[in-house]
Protein 1
Amino acid sequence: MKRMCPCLLVTVVLGLVLGGCSRPRPADTPGLPPPTADRPASTAGATGELNLWTIWNSEPRKTALEHVVAGFEKENPGVKVTVSNLEPDAYKTKIRVALGGDNPPDIFFVWSGEKMLHNFVRGGNCLDLTPYLDADGGRWRQALVANSLSSFTHNDATWGIPYLLQCTFFLYNKDIFSKAGVAVPKTWAEFTALCGKLKQQNIIPIALGNLERWPAHHIPCVLFQRLMGHDAVMAQYAPLGPGDYSDPRWLQALDMFQETVQAGFYTPSPNGVSRADARMMFYTEKAAMFYTGTWDLAQLSENGEAPSSFWNKWDFFNFPAVEDGAGEQDALAGSADGYVVSAKSKHPEQAVAFLKYMTSQPVAAAFVDECKELVQVHGAVTDDNSNWYLRRYAKMVQDAEVISAWTDTMMERSVAETLMNGIQGMIAGEKAPEQVMKEVAARQAEVKKELQATQAAGGKTASDS
């Protein structure tokens, strides 16, 4: 029986409907499915302008969202939706500044967990969507994948709507593996051995771009979970949790990562390489592997950024098991992301109506058709609108005992920043694992005191806006 953890994303049913039917699209609005009984009621007669901020600033998501907006506006001619497509890392700063003002966007993108959602809820920035989800006998709630929706629940209320479920995997070049005489590893020892064999043949084992600071932390993130287990790491990540990081396996995980850095298994000088450049290194076959999220699957497939000659050259595997680790060795690493409505929105009903439209099955299925991503709406993924990579990913999620959220999404923001800065310092040879964990524990202790004081005073901290 699968173990269900309230603060992680264990997705048992993802609405993968094999044998589904393709949907014709009107010629005047690409990507817009025809009206069906499954679509929510429109806001007929309503007027107003909605501002939507998102990190979907590249194709195919950018155009797919434009199609969603066009469809909604067609059904609601009095409502105008203005989309701001922002670069993901810049967005993290801009949205916090906007929420601190008097005119934040009506609808905005969030990562689930402490990274954004919980933080914004504490700051009073999100509209409680519970009444909308429970209306009409819970029809909207039932249309969404329950375990992803639970990740948008905090303090017994649901504050946002999940849209995509993302997990991280090792992508690998099948041709390079075959020519080098290496196979997909099942254990960490096998993984480091194959990296060593690739390096001996003058092949860069792993494309890594850590200019943005967060990509590299994903590897220690999984090592933490493999060594200690989901429940143990989540208890430490919680802003009001123990947070002492005294277990020696925190250092063990960073030591294991540091060994791969010192062995030269990554792109030279990864701190100066962007994530996009690392992806290009992979699809131009300058590196054998690329550890990344499922957001990149579409970029490496048909209609993506990679050339057609590469579309069938790659595959992916889950993070290998760590020998003698106490954690769940088959767990996936990932998290849901989605959208919330601002508590300050002047048009909350229209904003909610947009999210209902966006998560209706025909619209969600059209999004999958364009983007080949795992939309968290039942019936969104079919055999007609998905490729082999997406179907395989969906099956892995369906079979997963545990999906453990990424470290930076569950830690308090400044604690996560401390960890990512520390890992970047390790890569540069400027910091030791012991120093990194000491700084993380110290920052966590400060945050805990601040939050406890804030709770006692009934106020909010600056980090909550």
Protein 2
Amino acid sequence: MKAHWLLSLIFLLAISAPSKSGDFNSDAAELSAVLNPAVADHLLLIGFPDQSINRVQSASSTSYRRRGGYQSSGWSQRITQQIAEEYHIQKLTEWPMSEVGVHCVVYQVPADASVAETMQRLSQDTRVSIVQNMHLFKTEAHQYNDPYFKLQANLQQMQIGQAHAKTTGKNITIAMIDTGVDLTHPDLIDQITQNENFAYRISPDFSNDKHGTAVAGIMVAKKDNGTGIIGIAPDAKLIALKACWPHQTDSIEAVCNSFTLALAVNTAIKTGAKILNMSLTGPQDAFLELLLNKAIEKGIIVIAADTGLDKKNENFPASLKNVISVQSLRQPDQIPQLHTITAPGEKILTTLPHGTYDFISGSSIAAAEVSGIVALLLELKPDLTFAEARSILQKSESPATIDSFSGINANTAITALCETTTCPQEVLSFAWEKSFGG
């Protein structure tokens, strides 16, 4: 009996524990440097096409060598080593971005050398197709110490109750690139089908991270479970990819960099998720742009937090073409940029680690709400395109008044879609009865 109990416990731990990313079998000191914001200004990323990447079928191939969970061709490794020796820079890690056929490498420029000069020389190297700085990104949210009220005013404003009479996001998967998530939170148990930590060396913890837990709760918190809150798309499932880590211990603010985000986006594409939520912002990034354009090409609807500053070098990936950018309005008279969607983002009740809840604000929260609404739309129309989604979202925004904020109305969006798409008849009948008492 004891042996049977022990085997059961081991099995449960194996399927519930957050997974580490396999790419961290590289030298620990080198990866610590890659993830250290203090030396980011002396880190460079370069990329070049490697046609061998997509021809490799298994780890048994003799042309590729395993490097953690990824594979690097002998040809690409020789090139990256030659570059390191010719430019007197240290190679820290390398990996293939399999979805775009590009081999990537992170180098560290010596402290006494000019980063700008090294970049200039590398940009003229015919072997190199992309060269850039290591960029830092940050999440967009902050926490309030307001009293705990079991009230989700944002859901009432967006008429989620009426929307849920038609759709709850069933059979839709959202990939979220953020910090970790409390996998044992009562409102998130069984809602997360896959998780991976790409920042393991700098932040091995997963379930104690605040920002990702808050964003996850907005999107997929359970309904009708007798506790807590309701997510925008409670029957959708989530893939939690940790590429960001808390800025300080126990902080909701978090940071990420080009390296961890590139690994996460590449993985998100491979998962086959319908939606990619990125509740974060940072500078223009060539590596991420390449990957995100591939995601968009594959029909993934990418949704990102918009700072409201309309500065491309501070508002990526929301500034990228064909990404749905989402802004939270703090004042009724604050005018959003024309290309953005607005959603409630101030003092929104959501999940936090250790089974708790609190009020959180920021465009991260607004972006999560819109990701959830897109999941509702996709349940009704699985082949929904980016253009269709953005058009429906824009048309469903309520105008601002002196007493209320503008912002998206989920029920209006669903109703608009049902005018052109056949929605389940029994669900529509239920919605009619709820609305008119029939």
Protein 3
Amino acid sequence: MTNSQLASKCFFLFELTHLRSIMATSVSRASKRLRISTTNSWVCSDCRRSFTAAAKRPQQPSQRNATHLNDKTTHFGFETVAESEKVSRVGAVFSSVATSYDAMNDFMSLGIHRLWKDHFVRSLNPGMRTNPLSPTFSSDEPSGQRILDIAGGSGDIAMRMLDHATNINRDHRTHVTISDINPHMLGEGRKRLSTTPYHAAGRVDYLEANAEDLSAVESNSIDLYTVAFGIRNFTHKDKALEEAFRVLKPGGVFACLEFAPQLSNPLFNAVYKRWSFSAIPLIGQIVAADRDSYQYLVESIERFPPQPEFAQMIKDAGFLIPGQHNGNASLEGGWENLTMGIAAIHKGVKPL
């Protein structure tokens, strides 16, 4: 085993140890409201919901309905459903996990999604750098950036963007619009930011919208478009990319942080897949009384395009891909893998 492989293995084991501590805390809290019934089913004493551990989601009815209606079909995890049905089903998933969204990402990222988000924001360096000696802006300083955070209902990325712009670049004018199709997720972000000085200063607002139709946002009006752990749930990712291209100013940046379907190391990939499909739905059942939503979220990662394919989709939407050469491009420079490829950062720049 090489030093590089040994280091990767040690880092991977460290992450699993970190996640075990998170799980212990969550399971301890959940155990206060969950019990096992004599019929081998879980019963939530708070909401009185019960379900068996072996319960499976119905698949055939959705497929039959799609065929009967002659509607176009798409995937919802590993199911085939009508396109018109997917939006409502994805909405139901995120309404269900809205209050436990951070815990969900802890489980799905082995507890390090916070580090990924921090790195994602630092790599974008949001805000217009101003005079470092000036504690506040003056009339001759830049007007700040307009940032659109798509599928950002939790407020995680928006908060980091505003913190970075304010504390690192001394920019007190950069503004973030948090957009989400799900009102419950948007409500979580509104609740989180409502007590911050950013809300009081009018530097954040909220937009309930489908990323595939951002008609409420003017063309060529956005400096930075971000989407973190959301684009894999879109029905038409190509339409969302076209809308991102439309609303961005020339020179504006599209940036996406998303889980990837394959890890770079085959051994760790096998371990991670086993963890994802065996443990995460069970954790969702224990911690959130919602196995189906977590099962879908794992399956949605598996159905997301691999890095080269998604980078090509960004390019097809009209963006220039950082790290690629004009003409005979090498797609290997079109993204940044995080933690052996559990997640990846993709970027595109709208040509001037």
Protein 4
Amino acid sequence: MYYNMSMKTLGSILLFSLFFRSDISALERSVSFDQISDLTALPEKARAVPAPVIGETADETPGFCVFNGPSGSPLADAAAFKSVVGDGDAIYAGETHDQKKDHNAQLETLKALGEARGEKIVVGFEMLNLTLQPILDEYAAGTISEEEFLIKADWKKEWGFDFDLYKPLFDFVREHKLAALALNLPRKVVSKIARVGLDGLSPEEKQYLPARVEITQNEAYIAYLKESYDNHGKAHDPILGGLKKGMDEFTFEHYLEAMCAWNEAMGARLADFMNSNPGYAGMVVAGSGHIIYNAGIPASVASRTAGLRPVSFYPADAAACPAALPAEDSDLADYVWYINHSTTTAGVLK
């Protein structure tokens, strides 16, 4: 086995830990995004985008070891990879946040999607909460500089991971004039649900959520979240061990509600865009904990759209490419991309 449950769970721990901070300001404004009419349809546009080359990034290349999850068949080459991505309408590209190789794999995926769909692409970013959409629009359109974007979006506080990890993805969006979506919930909403549950939210806070929030019934995903929950506050957990001190205790039921609300909100954002803009392809850039088992964002989008062809990629840690897909990995995603995570080139900003 090339990685264990604790490695998979680490992704969930990392992404969830970012939402437990005491310095979050009051909710900026009322937002409702569950209605299709809330998103303006984009004009019809298309133009050629340079073809991708697998592993063309200058350093920290992800390698090319990709298996079809359900069938276990390996993708033979770049042409097969591009065919898979190009045939998809909703692409879910997972990541371990501090792993540059994962982000380079996301970039290769976006390049393949760009070759197939031209400018008719929207890229959704977990890294930005939905109140930052106007700032993301400015940056994607090239009307503000990278420096202005990082200041206005308060990237260091909002996300915390080195922007250089994500810069090539944003550069591609800007260069090819793609649409971009800020997918995330404000941290305050996620952390409050974890403490008091959905019923404990104020009317103002509920406006950040879609009208419908389903609690997952996926048993594998629930078990995955339960392990993440059980790891909170343990001595060997350098992230959550300290964060839980001085914070209200939360039950697993509320933790589950928080994760599901989080997934549902991000899925609804993409679904609303896709419903308003027929013919577009969407790509989600998010932590693997939101994509694993197709139970998070992919399930949310599927429940709100019809006829979209989803393709999910789970980046699994492996020292070497396995000769065959391990049986226990077959349900991780539509495709499992084995990447050596031994090198960390950037991480959480201090």
